[in-house]
Structure to design on (331 residues):
C-alpha cells in the first residue's frame, strides 16, 4: 500500500474558521470557479464567498429555478443546467462550456446526496456512487482541456463518512443488498481516491487536486433522513434544535473547501485529504484528533493503487478518460 503524505501544515485556521476568514487578503479577480452544488448548503456559502473575493462563479444546477432563486443578488455568478446522475447532461454541459473557449481556475465538486433510499440511475448504477463520484469523474474528464489550460485546482468534497466503507470491488452498485450508509461511505471514499489519482495524472499540466471533510453541518444534505434518525444520532432534539456542539455553521462548513481551493500554503502540493482548514492526519495517527472531533483519513482512501484501480473502473463505466492513450484511428 502506497499512500499520500498526510502531514498537517499548522495553517493558522481551524474548525471555527469561516470561508470568509480563509479568503481574507486573497483576490480572485479574473479567476473562474466552477462549483457543483453551489446553490445549497455549504456549496451556496462557497459560491457567495468566492464571488465576494472577486471570482466569477459558474454554478451548474439540476434545479435551475431553485439555483436562480438562491443566488439572486449575488454578483459574478452564472448558472447553467447540469444533472450529475445523467451522463448525457454532463456531456452537454461540458460541451457548452468548452465551446465558450474559457479556462477554469478552480473546480469544487460540492454537490452530493447522502443516505438516500435505494435508487438506480443510468444503466442501474447505485445513485450515491453515480452522483457523488461517477458524475464528477465524467465532468472533470470532459472539462480537462479547460482545467489544464487554467492550471486548475480541483477540490472534491468527501466526508468523514468515508470511514464507513472502502470501495466494494465485488459489488460497487449494491446489487446484493443495499445499505444506505455503507453506500454513502463508499461514495465518499471514491471522492478521496479520485483526487489522489487526478493529482497524479494532472500535476504535469499544473492541475492539482485535493479532497476534504467539511465537518458536521445541518444542511439539506440530510433531506433523506427522518427526524427520529437524527434524534437518535444526537444531532438534534425532537423539536429540531441542534444538539451536537461540534457541528459547524454553513460558513464554517464551507471553509475547508474554500481553503483547499485557494490557499497559497498548498502551492506545489496535491493529492491530499484536508480537514478543519488544514491537511488531515492519517486516522488514528494523532491522539489529539479524536479529542478535537477530527477523524483523519483512512489509509485505504489515499492508497495510490486503489486510486488507479478506481480510475480504470470509472473510465470503463462512463466511457470517458481524458488521459487514455490516443490510438492511430482516433488521431
Amino acid at each position: 500500500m502506497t499512500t499520500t503524505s498526510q502531514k498537517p501544515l499548522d495553517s493558522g485556521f481551524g474548525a471555527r474558521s469561516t470561508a470568509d476568514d480563509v479568503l481574507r487578503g486573497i483576490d480572485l479577480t479574473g479567476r473562474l470557479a466552477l462549483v457543483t452544488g453551489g446553490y445549497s448548503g455549504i456549496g451556496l456559502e462557497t459560491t457567495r464567498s468566492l464571488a465576494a473575493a472577486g471570482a466569477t462563479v459558474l454554478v451548474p444546477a439540476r434545479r435551475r429555478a431553485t439555483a436562480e432563486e438562491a443566488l439572486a443578488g449575488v454578483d459574478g455568478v452564472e448558472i447553467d443546467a447540469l444533472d450529475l446522475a445523467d451522463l448525457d447532461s454532463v456531456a452537454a454541459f461540458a460541451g457548452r462550456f468548452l465551446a465558450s473557449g474559457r479556462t477554469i481556475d478552480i473546480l469544487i465538486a460540492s454537490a452530493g446526496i447522502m443516505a438516500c433510499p435505494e435508487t438506480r440511475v443510468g444503466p442501474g448504477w447505485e445513485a450515491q456512487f453515480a452522483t457523488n463520484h461517477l458524475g464528477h469523474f465524467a465532468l472533470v474528464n470532459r472539462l480537462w482541456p479547460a482545467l489544464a489550460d487554467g492550471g486548475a485546482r480541483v477540490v472534491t468534497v468527501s466526508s468523514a463518512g468515508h470511514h464507513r466503507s472502502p470501495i466494494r470491488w465485488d459489488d460497487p452498485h449494491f446489487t446484493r443488498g443495499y445499505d444506505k450508509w455503507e453506500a454513502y461511505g463508499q461514495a465518499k471514499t471514491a471522492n478521496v481516491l479520485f483526487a489522489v489519482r487526478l493529482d497524479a495524472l494532472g500535476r504535469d499540466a499544473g492541475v492539482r487536486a485535493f479532497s476534504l471533510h467539511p465537518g458536521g453541518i445541518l444542511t439539506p444534505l440530510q433531506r433523506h433522513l427522518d427526524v427520529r434518525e437524527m434524534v437518535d444520532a444526537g444531532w438534534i432534539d425532537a423539536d429540531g434544535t441542534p444538539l451536537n456542539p461540534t457541528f459547524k455553521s454553513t460558513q464554517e462548513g464551507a471553509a475547508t473547501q474554500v481553503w483547499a481551493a485557494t490557499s497559497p500554503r498548498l502551492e506545489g502540493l496535491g493529492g491530499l485529504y484536508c480537514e478543519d482548514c488544514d491537511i488531515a492526519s492519517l486516522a488514528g495517527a494523532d491522539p489529539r484528533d479524536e479529542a478535537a472531533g477530527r477523524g483523519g483519513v483512512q489509509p485505504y482512501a489515499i492508497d495510490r493503487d486503489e486510486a488507479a484501480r478506481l480510475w480504470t473502473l470509472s473510465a470503463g463505466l462512463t466511457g470517458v478518460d481524458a488521459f487514455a492513450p490516443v490510438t492511430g484511428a482516433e488521431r
About this structure: The chain has a mean pLDDT of 91.
